[in-house]
Amino acid sequence: MTEYAFPGLTYMSFEGQVNPTGMTLRDYFAAKAMAVIFPPAIAELQRKKYSDQQIKQLKTAAAEGCYALADAMLEARE
Known about the structure:
By secondary structure, the chain is mainly alpha-helical.
């Protein structure tokens, strides 16, 4: 079952498309986790020289970590 972070509110994307459901609760939780996970990842990128492939892998791993935390938060709500 998909839950929405702010049901009843209508959002407009940067492209001007209207999304009446807003973001999912999973996306909202992942965005909150991103505030914790991404700063150390960015600091690591700034500290060392990485190849484009390594940068992509680090970003992907951080994003996957955010969604893993979001999934755990959703599971804890049950």
